[in-house]
Amino acid sequence: MNKVVFKFFKLIGWSMTNLFDLLKKGYKAYQTLQSVISEYISNTKVGEWTKKELEKLDKYLEKHPKVKQISGIVVAGLLVYIWLTMTFTGDFLDDFDISLVFLSLTGKTTLSQIFGTPSGMKMLTLFATGALFGLSFPWPGNNIIKFSVAVITTIAKFFKQHLLKGKESEETINKEIKAVT
Q1: Model pTM score
Q2: b/e string for 103-113 if b means 16 or more Cβ within 10 A?
Q3: Which of 26, 38, 143, 148 has the largest CB neighbor count within 10 A?
């Protein structure tokens, strides 16, 4: 009996299929908007300046391995804080991927690779949105459960990639053996 609800359902033709299609289109538009904004920010003077300065910092850290090791731990902690505060997008594999935390702990990534790329700008934008507005996709559970799921998801992703690489190299070797014989 609510007029707004009635008008809404009248607009979608009283069809749940139409509603679902609209939601899918809206979600795709939202993802596209995030990508466009992140790309734009990374190509602005601020984004380019940030990347240049981070590259300078990376070069400094290369000359000071002890500081680099400590900074990896600090950056991993910062990334966990960002992850706990940021806006979730609703894309499970993207939202629960914390591989940058593991890469930072192992020293296999640089600051410019983390924060100076379009995906880094996207992460910082989602962080700002979450910190300022508190808007987020409502994944169920508290932060401990969500973080545990993120760790498991990231480890599973790593092993899947590792297994696929092994499988691909095995297939390549088999093809080379067949080609020789």
Answers
A1: 0.71
A2: bbbeeebbbbb
A3: 38
